Amino acid sequence: MSLKKSFRFAIKLSVRNYCVQTPFKKPPKILITGGLGQLGVECAKYLRGKYGKNNVILSDIIKPSTEIFNDGPYIFADILDFKGLQKIVVDHRVDWLIHFSALLSAIGEQNVPLAVRVNIEGMHNVMELAKQYNLRIFVPSTIGAFGPDSPRNPTPNVTIQRPRTIYGVSKVHAELLGEYYHYKFGLDFRCLRFPGVISSDPPGGGTTDYAIAIFHEVLRKGHYDCYLKPDTRLPMMHVKDALRALSEYLEAPNESLNRRVYNVTAMSFTPEELAKEMFKYVSGLTISYRPDSRQDIADSWPEVFDDSEARRDWNWKPEVDMGDLVKLMLKEVKEKIDSNGF
């Protein structure tokens, strides 16, 4: 093949794939969608500490606080606007995409058409975007990707799923589409099924968020009215472990990964067990139980998550146990309440 023809072929190949894959000689440029949700802000802080402030771009469709805006790059990004996403990837030379945009379980059930648009159509856009530009893409999944027909204690990595919420259905769809894109197109798709993730940020509408709300309510009012039964066991982890799992998994070499989707967890507990641990540090707290529609969702989810494959393949190991979690949350939520003046 002549030099001229080789050059023309290379140009065509580059245009078709939208970029040329090269090994990372410098820190990756990372775009986080849905950045003002439960994990986005903390994830940006964590990754900026590893890769540099300007290498992690937080994005959402909501106006950020001054603190978030000043903390590092923040841009407007609508996941339903494909051409807008293309422009962001090209303008900012994005290498990795972390896709957090989603309506959570309880909120999604209240507005199914919107959940379909955000959780499914939006996910289609970022998946195609990652394929076109050869991005490494991370899409979180959840214990909500399982249903009442799944084994609940323990729930293995591969088993029947069949969830009964639009949130769960959308996550199973994301898992399967991502695996298809990996095997069909070579997309570097990565997905972790998270348990309930507990942080000091206010609850965002998830079924496991009682484990966040209880700290806010108890420290403000001394009482919490729980929407789940006292013996409802669910898998959980502190946000520090969740972000560490995400980061370690993103950095894991492809040859060590036997799957593209992994369960990860740290512990399992009930509302009653959590309250009992809190009693050690907060005197006089009271808790009542008034189960609502979220109980039906929780009853279809895993009680104990089996994450042995993640531990085997990329050495996942949680660091925050239940005692540590309670101490961290009491400290962090109190600081947040004090800083907000109420």
Give the structure's gist in a few sentences.
The protein is α/β, with parallel strands linked by helices and 342 residues long. The protein has 13 helices and 13 strands.
Structure report:
By secondary structure, the protein is of the alpha/beta class. It has helices at residues 3-17, 40-51, 66-71, 82-92, 105-110, 112-133, 166-185, 210-221, 239-251, 271-279, 293-299, 308-314, 322-340, and strands spanning 30-33, 56-60, 74-76, 96-99, 136-138, 141-142, 188-194, 196-198, 223-226, 234-238, 261-263, 267-269, 286-289. It contains 13 helices and 13 strands. The strands form three sheets. Strands 1, 2, 3, 4, 5, 6, 7 and 11 form an eight-stranded parallel beta sheet that branches. It has a three-stranded mixed beta sheet with strand order 8-10-12. A two-stranded parallel sheet has the order 9-13. The N and C termini lie far apart (73 Å).
Q: Main β-sheet: number of strands, strand sense, barrel status?
A: 8 strands, parallel
Give the overall form: globular
Radius of gyration: 21 Å
* Average pLDDT for all residues: 91
Coarse structural class: alpha/beta
Helix content bin: 40-55%
Order of H and E elements: HEHEHEHEHHEEHEEHEEHEEHEHHH
Percent strand: 5-15%
Topology:
Elements: H1 3-17, E1 30-33, H2 40-51, E2 56-60, H3 66-71, E3 74-76, H4 82-92, E4 96-99, H5 105-110, H6 112-133, E5 136-138, E6 141-142, H7 166-185, E7 188-194, E8 196-198, H8 210-221, E9 223-226, E10 234-238, H9 239-251, E11 261-263, E12 267-269, H10 271-279, E13 286-289, H11 293-299, H12 308-314, H13 322-340
Helix pairs in contact: 2-9, 4-6, 6-7, 8-13
Domain NAD-dependent epimerase/dehydratase: 30-264
Function: Catalyzes the NAD(+)-dependent oxidation of L-threonine to 2-amino-3-ketobutyrate, mediating L-threonine catabolism.
Catalytic activity: L-threonine + NAD(+) = (2S)-2-amino-3-oxobutanoate + NADH + H(+)
